[in-house]
Amino acid sequence: MQINFKILTLNDIILMQKYFACCNWRLSDYSAAFKFMWQKHFSLEFAYVEGCVVFRELYQGRVYFHYPMELSEGDAERAIDAIESYCREQNIRIHFTCVPREKIGGLIDRYGMEMRITNHRRWRDYLYRAQDFKDYAGKKFSGQRNHVNKFKKLYPDYKFIELCGDDVARMCEFLKRFESRQLSKGTVMAREELEGVYALLSHMDDFKLCAGGLEVDGTLIALSVGEMCGQQLIIHVEKALVDYEGAYPVMAQEFARAFASEGVEYINREDDSGDAGLRKSKLQYNPVRLVDKYDIFPRRAIERVTHLPVLVTQRLTIKEITDINAIEFFRLEYDGDRNKYWGYDWRAHYSGEPTPEYFMQGIREDFNRRDELPLGIFCGRSLVGEVVLHNFGYRNDCEVGVRLLPEYEGLGYAREAVLAAMNYAFFDLNIETVLSKCYKPNIRSRNMLISAGMRPCGEDETFYYFRKTAAM
Q1: 223-277: per-residue pLDDT in tens?
Q2: How far, in Å, CA of 223 to CA of 163, rounded?
Q3: If you ran DSSP here, which 8-state letter would residue 134 be given?
Q4: How many CB atoms lie within 10 A of CB 208?
Q5: To the nearest whole percent, how much of the chain has pLDDT over 70?
Q6: Residue 242 phi, psi (nearest 5)
Q7: Parallel, antiparallel, or unpaired: how do β-strands 125-129 and 463-469 relate?
Q8: Contact between 192 and 204 (Cβ < 8 Å)
Q9: SS3 label, residue 217
């Protein structure tokens, strides 16, 4: 299934709110307002796949996919199948981000332990019991009660007020006074977070957000904005002027009392982004849980390969192509008639006349990037062709391809090389399925693949497709 990602817009987020409403993973990342605030920072794109919403982001030069959000009729497993196919077609590595804990087991079943898992502390959300914020009861909240009592003593006439879209100008005026403290952190994320807040305030009604503030002598001195997501209230904005001592715990309590209505069990105050002061503050409010967000990096079999193998058959040696063979390899790569069925034309990627060094550099880079295993087919000292294991997937599968110099065709070398490559794939790389395809006019290649034990598994207008497992 082809996936067509598109840039995430305000209207898209509004239309997909039913997906957010069904998402009970306790993660702020899977909420409408969060996606809107950070869409530019993470270059967010999305697609509807198998009844799910799939987000793709670009962060620090790497592509990430969020775990598919599904409705009752959606199929997240099939959506992940489509993501895998998309990554193979685009030749990009598959990385998942913001994966909730309850989905880790399914990914382990899918990929085995052939994956790297990270769970960075700075991105974990802080989850609190809503009732704790309403009451600040018990010894563990004595500090918060003391701050609240002091604030009320200093500002006995303070007011908590509920805010709406009509109050945007007033909220922005408060943010202007708060701005210097935020920007003093000197980080790109601090600046972008503030820009996201300004943008979010203009669409409070679109996202059905709840907002409130503390007012002292008619002046807004604290602001909080939240979003209802199932049984949790996610706090996207929580800011106060620190000159008003105790404003933060008062704001947090008043907001919980106003908006954490019956049925709201938790308050999510998002992550601390690695800010030491923010971490200390959030821990002092006694979270019941730090909500894990996992990054999952499935590994393909080729990524375990540290060097190109040497395979020996009855007549052939299959091994790395070196500079000694550069002229013969140039002849194999350069000949258009030889390669019209190879599926790759160097002319589409290179202008001018290539050199032997150009093609040698290409196959070295292909292996260094772990895009493929390019192996020369040698009869004695002569290079007679190339066999390649490539297009490695995330379910222990790969493709095999072979090509020969014209004077060595018809001798059974292609079949012998393909059998050796598949044997290496099955028993050294633990590949479960080897795939191949050939252009329909290439009858010789079709017959060779069948004689090597590959079974036809489909066709389209261009190709015949084949597969083989170790049991076949």
Answers
A1: 999 999 888 999 999 999 989 999 999 999 999 999 998 889 999 999 999 989 9
A2: 9
A3: H
A4: 12
A5: 99
A6: -70, -10
A7: unpaired
A8: no
A9: coil
* 44 contacts 57 by C-beta, under 8 angstroms: yes
CB 170 within 8 A of CB 221: no
- Taking residue 144's Cβ as centre, other Cβ atoms within 10 Å add up to 21
Q: Which residues contact 31 (CB under 8 A, 6 or more apart)?
A: 20, 23, 227, 229, 234, 236
* pLDDT tens-digit map of 300-342: 999 999 999 999 999 999 999 999 999 999 999 888 777 788 8
Phi, psi of 23 (to 5 degrees): -90, 115
Q: Phi and psi at residue 163, in whole multiples of 5°?
A: -120, 160
Q: Which of 312, 255, 309 is nearest to 285 (CA)?
A: 255
Contacts of residue 466, defined as CB under 8 A and 6 or more positions apart, other chains included, come to 435, 436, 437, 438, 449, 450, 454, 455, 456, 457
Q: Specify the pairing of strand 455-459 against strand 433-439.
A: unpaired
Q: Rounded to an integer, what distance in angstroms lies between the CA atom of residue 398 and that of residue 371?
A: 11
What CA–CA distance (Å, rounded) separates 179 from 183? 6
Q: Token pair 């222990």 is at which residue?
A: 396
pLDDT digits (tens, 9 = 90+) for 390-442: 999 988 899 999 999 999 999 999 999 999 999 999 999 999 999 999 999 99
159/145 Cα distance (integer angstroms): 18
Residue 46 predicted with pLDDT over 80? yes
Torsion sign across C-alpha atoms 124, 175, 190, 180: negative
Specify the length of the chain in residues: 472
